[in-house]
Design brief:
Structural class: mainly beta
Number of strands: 6
Helix content: under 10%
Number of helices: 2
Distance between the termini: 18 Å
Strand order of the largest sheet: 2-1-3
Strand content: 25-35%
Oligomer: single chain
Number of domains: 2
Length: 104
């Protein structure tokens, strides 16, 4: 469920000048504070995106990273147990097992 940030138009209340509120995307935007009933506006907040940077982070998040080693030869630096560490063009058994990496 998304977290929305609201700010009181005038003075704040017990929640403070700004407050966060968990709301479903389908919920309407608030126009008054649920605590004090004063007017509020929804703010645009920063979004934190965590991008994996190391090979181990990529592996733990289900990504496969292939590094070119030669013409048609790639090293799978995020290989899972049982996967080939080397992927070669024309050899399907060396391709990373995507079904093992993707889960619901």
């Amino acid at each position: 469920m998304p977290v929305y940030e609201y700010e009181h138009v005038g003075q704040g209340c017990d929640r403070g000048k700004r407050f966060e509120l968990d709301q479903a995307i389908s919920d309407g935007r608030l126009s008054v504070c649920p605590t004090c009933g004063k007017a509020v506006e929804r703010m645009i907040s920063k979004v934190y995106v965590c991008t994996p940077t190391t090979d181990s982070e990529l592996k733990s998040k289900g990504f496969a990273k292939l590094v070119r080693r030669d013409e048609g030869v790639y090293e799978n630096v995020t290989a899972l147990d049982g996967e080939s560490r080397v992927m070669e063009a024309g050899k399907p058994d060396t391709i990373p097992d995507i079904k093992r990496r993707i889960t619901d």
